[in-house]
Amino acid sequence: MSERSLDVIEELKPFAGASGTCNNVVALDFLNKARRLLWNKTDFSETMDYISICCVDNCFLLPSAYKQIRLAWIGNTPASIGDEWYVSIPQVGLNESSSCHKRLAQIGGFHVTFQNYDEAPYQIGIQAEHPLDEGKEVTVFGIDEYGTSKKETITIGMPPQRVLTKQFFGDVKAVIKPLTKGRVRLYAVDKQAAQFLLLAVYQPYDKNPQFRKFSVSGGCGKQITLLAKKTYFDITGEDELVEFPIEALKFAVMALVAQKDRDIQTYTTDLQLAVIECGRETADNEIPTASPLRLFHNDTPEHLYRY
Predict the structure, then answer these.
(1) Is the bond preceding 245 in cis, omega lying within 30 degrees of 0?
(2) Which of 81, 124, 274, 287 has an alpha carbon 20 to 30 Å from 46's alpha carbon atom?
C-alpha cells in the first residue's frame, strides 16, 4: 500500500502547481500538508497501531510515537478510557470486579523518564547511537539533592562515547533534545560505584521528549494491549514511505488549493472525497468495535470527481 515519497511527489505535481510546473520542494510541502490534513480527519489503517505495553504499579507510559489511545484491553477484557476529571468523580455503584471498573486515565502533566534514580545524587550520561549525531546538544533540567532547580547542556560525543554532566542531579524533570538520526540514551551515572542505570531511550523523532502517563484502576496485571493513533511526523526524505493512497492525496491537495483560493465549497467536497478514498483502502478490514461494516459502492456521484 505504501509508496516512496519521490514517486508520490511526481504524481501530485500536476495538482499542486500551476500546470504541473512546481518543483520538488513545493510538491513535498503540499504532500506533508495533505498528509497532516488526512491524518487528522481519518482513522486510516496506516495511522493506527496495535501495541503491547507493560504495566508497573498500575501505571504505564505511552510512547511518544503515539498521541492517543482509542481502545484498550487488559488481558482479554476491554477497558474503558477516561481522563482526570472522570477519575476525580466518585464512581458510585460500580462493581469492583466488573470490566467497566477497569479503566485507563491519563495522569496530569508530562513525564520524561521511565524511572528515577534516587539512591544518591548522580551525573547524567548521554550516549548516541548514530555517528551523525555527534556535536548535537541535549539539555537536562532537574533538581539537586537540596531541591534546587538546575540545568546543564551536554554536547553529544561520537558513539559509543557516553558524555557526562559536570553537575549532580537528584531527579530529572525535563529534557530538550533535537531531532536526531539515531536513538539517544539517557543514563544515571555513579562513577564512584561504577554504576550506569538506563533511564530512557529517546527515538530520533523525540524532540523535547514528553510521555503521557496513565493509571489503571481495577488492576492491570503486567501487560496491556492498546489500539493507538500514531503521532504525525513530516516526511523529509525522498525514500520515505507515504501512508495514504495516491488518489486520497490528490483530492487532499486539491482541497488545500481550494482552501488557499477561499473556495470553501470545493474544499469541503474534495476533502470529503479524500476521506472516502482512505476508507476504500480499508473497507474490507475488520473493525475492532461495534461499528457497522463500511461498505463502498461504485455509485459515487460523477460530479464529485474533477480530474
Answers:
(1) no
(2) 81
